Amino acid sequence: MLDLNRLPLSRKQLLSIGQATARINLWHGSVRSGKTVASLLAFVIAVATAGPSGLIIIVGRSLQTIERNVLEPLQDRALFGPLARHIVHTRGATTATILGRTVHLIGAADARAEGRLRGLTAQLAYVDEATLMPEAMWTQLLARLSVPGARLYATTNPDSPRHWLRTQYLDRLDEPDMDMRAWHFRLADNPSLSAKYIASLAAEYTGLWRRRMIDGLWVVAEGAIYAEWDEARHVVDTLPEMRRHFVGIDYGTTNPFSAVLLGIGTDDRLYACAEWRYDGRRTHRPMTDSQYSDAVRTWLADYRPPGAPDTAPRGVAPVWTFVDPSAKSFSTQLWQDGHPGVARADNTVADGIRSVASLLAADRLLVHSSCAGLLSELPAYSWDPKATARGEDAPVKADDHSCDALRYAVHSTAHEWRHLLTRAT
Ligand SMILES: Nc1ncnc2c1ncn2[C@@H]1O[C@H](COP(=O)(O)OP(=O)(O)OP(=O)(O)O)[C@@H](O)[C@H]1O
Ligand SMILES: [Mg+2]
After folding, report:
1. Mean pLDDT confidence for 147-167
2. Ligand 1 atom with the shortest distance to the CA of 190
3. Quick one: average pLDDT of 152-166?
4. Nearest atom of ligand 1 to the alpha carbon of 10
5. Nearest to 128 by CA among 66, 42, 43, 214
6. Which ligand 1 atom minimizes the distance to the CA of 69?
7. In the structure, how many helices (H) and strands (E) does the chain have?
8. Mean pLDDT in the chain?
9. What is the pTM of this model?
10. Domain 231-422's class?
11. According to the model, what pLDDT value does residue 153 have?
């Protein structure tokens, strides 16, 4: 049923599919390196030959990521040929049918996920993005795979070397009772990638993420978060015309409050144009939400781009103002005061940091010299060694206010600038 003329597998893919007969089978390594295609083939072959007893389950971060990362590739005729027709799924349903067998879909982020796993008996499981699920859920899943000959197939990108999947499993491959095999994939293991595609992919990742996602290495997050940050390269005294403006706001009453005005320039670069900060602790005069709202709106109404003549009109109208999602009362205040385009900022920290880092690395994000808070925080913004020791990636929670405001504005508008990273300069 598989048309291998249409899907010429790499040696590494073939080898892994042939060897994937252990209790735990793990494909790890670089992005786009062919892990999903190889692991899905191994899984589908196992489904085709599965016995009658024990459930078949697919676990992912959410139902949506299972649909996008697992079911859609399986239904891709260009990849899986006639096999694709034997994968049946209605969007949103918590089961799918693969080769006539019912497969249960479980999103780890779903609060009921653990409960759905508890008590069931499984013979096959496929896990997408294994490092992103809680260790307790992985352990629970292994406990549920109780049918003789039961197997788990999983893929992941590398994370911290102190991550539980690495220390509790990958590092213990050689222990006799582990019954686990793993294959490390690099970009060269995907036969379909052109040199041009690989170059543009590499350009999207920098620093920590270059080493994890492109080189495929399990490395810790340590030291400066924006290692690319260089005042000589990234700080400017003049600004070009802007196509659109946005604002990112990190809210604080005892901690500093920071608002950053972000512009997308007609030169296809992003600019932190200006900043408004208030430190209620230093002044011993905390501001109310209403005072903050007045101050931010006045700051925007008075804004005049640096270098503009004194006669130039004042005022800037950001399309969206992305507010710290935990600052609900302040968002409501801004909205009640008639400020247009108030939105919740996207606060996925690691992804947001990655967005800022990629732009800095590509010289696509520059900071105006008036942004004093940002200029003092950016070079010192660093990974928290305590989180690193736990196998997690998290910034030190101090002097991160303008960094957060910038991250909110940048990451929440990713769809506006993503294409700029892959376009040649
Ligand atoms: N042998 C192959 N022949 C043709 N195309 C392939 C082959 N292997 C992988 N691809 C294609 O390359 C792309 C990346 O492959 P895949 O999704 O398996 O990578 P991955 O390692 O799972 O990546 P990620 O870490 O980003 O999830 C996909 O579009 C896939 O269809
Ligand atoms: Mg994948």
Report:
1. 96
2. 8
3. 96
4. 1
5. 66
6. 27
7. 19, 15
8. 93
9. 0.81
10. alpha beta
11. 98
